[in-house]
Inverse folding.
């Protein structure tokens, strides 16, 4: 083992105290790569000749709950390659040191799989069994993967690392901004607190899947908050495995982020499954339009606004109205066709009954009826009618054009 592999780490925080300037989806993707590398080590698998480890895109899709586009994967991997991690740790001599690297060193996407090379420092951590075990017992995907806010994921990971201590170190407001990768956004602490601290903590505490209870303790000077820390308690519950997770609603399948069961149930109390699917489709279309114009996409914010405002419902109602009109028109056509068929059938039976009655008469009676009809015929029919009679046959037009006349003659005959 070389000197670098003998580095002594304080805590798994060496993988946590980074600037979280990446998106939630990139953070999740990175976690999946770390997990894949860990499984790679446990299985004793070899890297390829260039040092790459591969994960199938289908496996990433199974974890995320949807299939990411190849373009999105490439964009996220390139961000992970470029974004810096600055890690503080103790060297073998006990002195503090700082290590800078990217989230990944290299990546490639080909043949429905993603290849990646981790920085040497991360490989070192993952090769140390005790640290690896703690890192991945801390981050259970069935909890971590359900977060829909980047700040929920950051706070959860931070608090899991410090759970044995019961509280995190103190964060100044400025350091918190740097820690979560914020620039000048939310200049007022009230807004910063609401978006990046208070609301994420509330969501974590209310989640039925989360195994932590978190409280924020603020420190003020002249009523102005200058620092804070998170106080942590474990919540007694069984962390679900993939097979134990409750079944989620299928109408959420096309979402590009995952909503946990609590959020899905809340939305299902407001919308039908058909309406949920329409809202998601409209939000996805909007995100795709932004991406095609090279604009920044915050997909979680888009979904939040879409559900709040009921995107796509007007189009859905219009579509349903058109479909209803089409259904009514089709039913009317079917009804008219059925009525026409009944009329045709009734007319055929009527004709058959007249023919039967006519041919049941003797020859003289039949001739008398033909004489009575011939006398009142229009000249247009008269010539052919007489020609047929002269040839000794019943006129072919008798039961087609003169059915009513035959019926009248029969009535007179029998009365």
């Amino acid at each position: 083992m070389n000197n670098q592999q003998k580095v002594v780490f304080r805590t798994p925080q060496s993988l946590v105290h980074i600037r979280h300037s990446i998106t939630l989806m990139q953070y999740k993707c990175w976690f999946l790569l770390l997990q894949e590398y860990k499984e790679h080590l446990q299985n004793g698998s070899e890297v390829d000749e260039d040092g790459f480890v591969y994960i199938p895109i289908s496996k990433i899709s199974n974890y995320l709950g949807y299939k990411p586009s190849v373009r999105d994967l490439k964009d996220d991997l390139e961000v992970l390659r470029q974004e810096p991690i600055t890690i503080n740790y103790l060297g073998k001599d006990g002195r503090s040191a700082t290590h800078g690297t990217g989230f990944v060193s290299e990546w490639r996407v080909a043949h429905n799989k993603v290849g990646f090379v981790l920085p040497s420092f991360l490989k070192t951590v993952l090769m140390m069994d005790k640290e690896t075990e703690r890192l991945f017992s801390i981050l259970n995907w069935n909890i971590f993967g359900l977060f829909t806010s980047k700040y929920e994921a950051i706070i959860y990971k931070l608090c899991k690392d410090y759970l044995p201590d019961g509280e995190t170190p103190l964060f100044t407001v400025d350091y918190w901004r740097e820690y979560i990768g914020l620039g000048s956004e939310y200049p007022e602490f009230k807004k910063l607190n609401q978006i990046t601290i208070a609301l994420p903590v509330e969501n974590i505490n209310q989640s039925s899947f989360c195994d932590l209870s978190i409280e924020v303790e603020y420190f003020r000077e002249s009523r102005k908050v200058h620092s804070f820390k998170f106080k942590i308690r474990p919540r007694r519950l069984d962390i679900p495995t993939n097979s134990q997770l409750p079944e989620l609603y299928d109408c959420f399948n096309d979402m590009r982020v995952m909503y946990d069961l609590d959020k899905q149930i809340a939305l299902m109390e407001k919308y039908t499954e058909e309406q949920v699917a329409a809202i998601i489709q409209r939000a996805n279309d909007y995100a795709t339009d932004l991406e095609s114009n090279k604009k920044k996409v915050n997909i979680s914010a888009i979904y939040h606004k879409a559900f709040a405002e009921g995107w796509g419902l007007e189009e859905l109602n219009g579509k349903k109205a058109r479909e209803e009109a089409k259904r009514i028109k089709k039913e009317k056509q079917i009804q008219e066709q059925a009525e026409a068929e009944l009329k045709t059938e009734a007319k055929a039976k009527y004709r058959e009954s007249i023919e039967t009655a006519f041919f049941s008469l003797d020859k003289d009676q039949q001739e008398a009826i033909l004489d009575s009809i011939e006398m009142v015929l229009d000249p247009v029919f008269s010539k052919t009618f007489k020609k047929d009679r002269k040839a000794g046959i019943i006129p072919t037009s008798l039961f087609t054009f003169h059915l009513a006349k035959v019926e009248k003659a029969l009535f007179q005959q029998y009365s």
Observations:
- Residues 1-19, 131-142, 239-246 have pLDDT under 50 and may be disordered.
